[in-house]
Amino acid sequence: MQDIQDPGPARAPLVMVSREDCIAAGECARIAPAVFDQDDADGTVLLREGFTSADPQLRKQIRHAVAACPAGALDLVEDD
Prior knowledge:
Layout: E1 2-4, E2 14-18, H1 27-31, E3 36-38, E4 45-47, H2 56-68, E5 74-77
Antiparallel strand pairs: 1-2, 2-5, 3-4
InterPro entries: 3Fe4S_ferredoxin (IPR001080), Fe-S_cluster_ET (IPR051269)
Pfam family, one: Fer4_13
Protein name: Ferredoxin
């Protein structure tokens, strides 16, 4: 199962997570806590609601979190 952030009309980049691939390392939540959280039950990644990945600083954190994920469970799809 993948959680996908709806980019809305502004066409912000899509943030996708695969909980099946997640190994609960927590790097994403440490690097970008406004975007990623961990499930209390098993530690796997959760995508928070209410953030905008169009924000340049937050987008930088998301890119860092995607690159740091040891399981490759995160993806950022950008139009630019």
